[in-house]
Specification:
Radius of gyration: 20 Å
Structural class: alpha/beta
Strand content: 5-15%
CATH topology of the largest domain: DNA polymerase, domain 1
Largest sheet: 4 strands, parallel
CATH architecture of the largest domain: Orthogonal Bundle
Number of domains: 3
Strand order of the largest sheet: 4-3-5-6
Distance between the termini: 38 Å
Helix content: 40-55%
CATH class of the largest domain: Mainly Alpha
Number of strands: 6
CATH superfamily of the largest domain: 5' to 3' exonuclease, C-terminal subdomain
Shape: globular
């Protein structure tokens, strides 16, 4: 669970700021160039209070801020506009629901047709989803109840791409991948989607059935284990080249 939760859900400034920073981050809506410092300034100047407010920002408002030039304002607004085309799983993860990480958000998305469906999801449906028990289900329902108005607003703004399941055929068919370290051009979830789109399979740990280890910056023990097992290792450049070929 994210560390920025506090008891006063609706009025705590630290939580509001943390939720907005999470919403725009690379792993969620990926609003490139809109970092924590700008979120802090936008809040301080009362330009935004909740995620949906970001999509109403005007260039004239941004240009009134210190250190905000024409090019930067244009780039930030373009990043906000581009973020509208996202996946349902990323949007759910972006809400910052307690206990719901990227993997769980994707599993929830598989049971919904739209973001607004999250408002009417019931306890029984949630408990049927893998890795969600009663405690997590109740936490989700409580959070969604409080965020109902915001979810409705976002559902009218965002344009969701349908996330397809793993492809049945493609250049990575029969290959099992493991990802380790930090990739600079793709999030872990995006890399997984790219592999599955080419019929590959992504594993969580290195073992004898692993065919390829994709290595980013600050790779950990998975790299050493892969070397010992003689597993093929791709750096990020090789991985991207194989995706494009």
């Amino acid at each position: 669970m994210a560390a920025w939760y506090c008891p006063n859900w609706e009025g705590c400034p630290a939580q509001i700021e943390g939720r907005l920073i999470h919403f725009v981050s690379k792993d969620t809506l990926n609003m490139d160039g809109l970092g924590p410092q700008w979120i802090h300034i936008f809040l301080e100047k009362k330009l935004i209070q909740k995620p949906s407010d970001l999509f109403s920002l005007k260039k004239s408002q941004l240009m009134e801020l210190d250190r905000m030039g024409d090019k930067l304002a244009t780039n930030i607004l373009a990043a906000i506009e581009n973020s509208k085309n996202t996946s349902l799983a990323r949007a759910i993860y972006g809400l910052g629901i307690p206990h719901v990480g990227e993997t769980l958000a994707r599993k929830i998305a598989e049971h919904l047709n739209s973001l607004e469906d999250l408002i009417t999801i019931d306890l029984g449906t949630l408990k049927q989803i893998e890795d969600i028990g009663e405690v997590v289900s109740l936490s989700i329902l409580n959070f969604v109840k409080r965020l109902k108005t915001e979810i409705k607003a976002l559902s009218k703004i965002l344009e969701f791409k349908r996330t397809e399941g793993p492809a049945l055929d493609g250049p990575f068919k029969g290959l099992s991948f493991v990802l380790t370290g930090t990739l600079t051009t793709l999030t872990r979830e995006a890399a997984k989607e790219q592999i599955e789109a080419k019929a590959g399979k992504v594993l969580s740990s290195v073992n004898k059935s692993t065919n390829i280890l994709v290595v980013g910056a600050d790779a950990g023990s998975k790299l050493e284990k892969a070397k010992k097992l003689g597993i093929e290792i791709w750096n990020e450049k090789t991985f991207l080249n194989r995706l494009e070929s």
